[in-house]
Amino acid sequence: MVDSTVVINGQTLAYTFYCIVLILLMAWFAYKVTKGGSGTFVKPAIFYTFVGFLTVLGVSLHIITYNTIPWAEMDLNRANYTPDKTFVITVQDHKFTLPSNKMIIDLNDKVLFDVKSNDLTYGFGLFRSDNTMMFQMQVVPGHRNDILWHFTKPGVYTIRSTEYSGPKGVFMIEKDVVEVVDPRGIIK
Amino acid sequence: MSFIKTLMNGEEGLFKGDTLTPMQKMALRFVVVGLVYYGFVVIEGMLMRVYEVTPVSFISQSQFFAIMTAHPLVGIFGSTYSIVFGAFLFLVPFLMKKPLWSIKMANWNFVLVTGGTFIFWFAGFVSHYAPLYTLYWPLPADFNQFSVWGGTFFIVGIALVMVGTMLFIINIFKTITYTPEGWEKQPAGALLGSALGISGFKNLFRKNKKEHLVSLPVAAIARGTVDMAFNTGIILFTGVLILIYMVGSILGFDLKTTAIDALLYKNWFWWGLDLIADGLVLIFVAGTWYLLATLITGKKLFMQNIARAALLVELVVSWTVWSHHLLSDQSQPGMLKVLSGEMVTAFELITQGLAFFITLATLWSARPLKMTNPLKFLLGGLLGFALAVPAGIMQADVGLNRILHNTQWVIGPHVHVAILVGLTMTLYSAIYFLFPILTNGAKMYSQKLVNIHFWCHLIGGIGMGAFMGMAGLNGMLRRSLYVNGEFNTYMILAALAGTLLLIGFLVFFYNIVMSVGVKGVIDIFLPAKVKGKNLLPE
């Protein structure tokens, strides 16, 4: 599975490009609308083309991401997958209770994190050592909160609550508790 | 004129408070208070920006989150609602060429919103009440972290704002439909139908188009007000629900937090909150763009019938988009995530895109235009939404939400760029346009200061959003704290951009005070000497 860093980089590039083009377009418009020329009506055909473009863009964005972001399909259909490993985690009084001090995952395994809250709404996120986010989900009391993730890169990861649960929630960090290892002992 | 004289009497002494009608005073009071509360928000924002860089000792952590809780609410209710109420309570009668239904009600509206905002802000300031604006269940009942008394006063303040908002809603719809004394009987039902877009929708399918009874900006105000009515009911109900738990706790009864389903509560709450964020804000903004474009150009709006229909679509869309806030809630049904969270939300790209295009096309039809203050701020507002809406559409995606939810991306390029650049610059455009009308011809003290305000606000707003967004893409969460300087590069740059916003606001405020004078500002809050319901002096 493609790492979420690749998706973030792609998004960063696309949105930055869009912003630059848009700012330049608005600057051009501001210049043209105030400098010379005479008022002309925009042809309705241009307007309807623009409407069509927005419609196609709005709908196709989700179709494209569904087919290109690897976890999107797996997430919506996770009940149909059999995880290689399952970790059951509980949260109460602003504290994660983990199944073990170190949660070891084999490279290329699909792992289900099943997180239960006994009191407040929390979040559950996995973060790389450079603080970038791998994934996250909400942890709502009284409901099943599970996420299936395919680990394709070895590394050490930190669990952090990603939802505000009062000032105490800031300290809900379990540092380096998840480790993805290559069972053949080869770190790629 | 000496500096002191200008400071006291305003630029060239042109502003004469005793010539203002009660309607002008009412609108100006709302605007002045809205701007003062905006000042609160900017200062609070800067305090938080500094705290994000280094947790300064004079602010405790609980105070930091209390500021974060009050910050958006003061911004939405104390500032934006006040400015919008003042402007629309003046504009609806102005555009319909009839008096406001009740000035008395408008004045009560003002007192309740101003007072309510101060009460909840002060309650948060004193007690450090900090469940944040989400008020996620069962947080309000978590009295181990928060003072129940602080929470009670906080909720009472919010409730007062909601009661004030109800008065605004009644006043707007009554003004559209009522028959003023001595007038021929007005067709209330037809006026309401036109305002809500029913007649406009029918026009799309008619060969002989019927004339609209209300103008497009009034229709936009009416439709946004429908969403306002829904969300006012929901926020009031939610507040009462929380209050029951708080009063129970004060009386020694522990009402179980599990009594109400947390996910159901989240759905309910976000449905209501989205009627503001994805409903009335977008509809009011589109209506204001249309109004400003036609007033600036003196031309008819491009594709008027489509614009009316789009406003109606936006209204329906705003009722069904809430699920994009729950894409990371794994128990939320997948169907709701895809249909409401992704697909319906994508319609906002279309409706806002249409409003953007229609406004630009209307401006284009009248070129060459003079780069007036309303025009430049209008263009800034258009740019803000054009940047912020796609950022929102991206996070409203099942795949991308997994790595964007609750990061600084959401609150930076989407929320702050939409509100600060999109919404606030649109409001500034309206303020600069209405300024000479509401002040009976007062003159702006300095055009140079207006330009400084414009550039500081535009660059500061986009810059702050951009650096917050970069931090978010690198994993920085919102509603959290990083005490080891993990994201300091981005946070320092965001703080510098925030400083530009603060400078922009101070320059604007100084310019306004110098334009109308300190005496003039005080005079706005004194009873009007001119009597009657006229909008402007005869």
Class by alpha and beta content of chain A:
alpha+beta
Largest beta-sheet characterization of chain B: none
The average pLDDT of chain A is: 93
- Summarize the amount of helix of chain B as a percent range: over 70%
Structure explained in plain terms:
The complex is a heterodimer of chains A (about 190) and B (about 550). Chain A is built from three helices and nine strands. Chain A is an alpha+beta fold and about 190 residues long. Chain A has two domains: about 5-70, no CATH class; about 80-180, Sandwich (Immunoglobulin-like), CATH 2.60.40. A five-stranded mixed beta sheet of chain A has the order 3-9-8-5-6, with no helix packed on it. A four-stranded mixed beta sheet of chain A has the order 2-1-4-7. In chain A, helix 2 (about 45-70) crosses helix 3. The longest helix of chain A is centred in the N-terminal third of the chain and has 31 residues, at about 5-35. The radius of gyration of chain A is 23 Å and the shape is elongated. In chain A, about 30% of the residues are buried. With about 550 residues, chain B is an all-alpha fold. Among the domains of chain B are: about 1-20 and about 440-538, no CATH class; about 20-260, no CATH class. Chain B is built from 16 helices and no strands. The two termini of chain B are about 30 Å apart.
Summarize the helices and strands and which ones pair or pack.
The complex is a heterodimer of chains A (188) and B (538).
Chain A: H1 4-34, H2 44-68, H3 70-76, E1 85-92, E2 95-97, E3 103-106, E4 110-117, E5 122-127, E6 133-139, E7 145-150, E8 155-160, E9 173-181
Parallel strand pairs in A: 1-4, 3-9
Antiparallel strand pairs in A: 1-2, 4-7, 5-6, 5-8, 8-9
Helix pairs in contact in A: 2-3
Chain B: H1 3-9, H2 22-53, H3 61-96, H4 103-127, H5 148-177, H6 188-196, H7 198-203, H8 216-250, H9 262-297, H10 304-319, H11 334-364, H12 373-395, H13 398-404, H14 408-438, H15 447-473, H16 488-524
Helix pairs in contact in B: 1-16, 2-3, 2-4, 2-16, 3-4, 3-5, 3-14, 4-5, 5-8, 8-9, 8-10, 9-10, 9-11, 9-12, 9-14, 10-11, 11-12, 12-14, 12-15, 14-15, 15-16
